[in-house]
From TrEMBL:
Protein name: Small ribosomal subunit protein uS17
Organism: Sphingomonas glacialis
Family: Belongs to the universal ribosomal protein uS17 family.
CDD domains: Ribosomal_uS17
Domain of life: Bacteria
UniProt keywords, alphabetically: Ribonucleoprotein, Ribosomal protein, RNA-binding, rRNA-binding
Length: 90
């Protein structure tokens, strides 16, 4: 079975080697059909304490690391990417 990968925002980095990631998903209400947001917090393993609060990251499901941690941080999602500068020879 493949490992699940989720994308979310780090809301806390106070624990040692642990970050709390808030993952948001949008679902359709069963009766009314309105799109509503559902959020869930995941404790994820950050081996080098390199990720900080406010960053958007991808997390991957793993074998249990501790009581709450069954996810690990894979990498940052570059939400503030600037396009590369292109020089035009004209």
């Amino acid at each position: 079975m493949p490992k699940r990968v989720l994308t979310g925002l780090i809301v806390s980095d106070k624990g040692d080697k642990t970050v709390v990631v808030n993952v948001e998903r949008k679902v359709k209400h069963a009766l009314y059909g309105k799109i509503i947001r559902r959020t869930k917090k995941y404790h994820a393993h950050d081996e080098g304490n390199e990720f900080k609060q406010g960053e958007t990251v991808r997390i991957e499901e793993t074998a249990p690391i501790s009581k709450l941690k069954t996810w690990k941080v894979i990498d940052r999602v570059n939400t503030h990417a600037t396009p590369e500068r292109v020089d035009v020879d004209a």
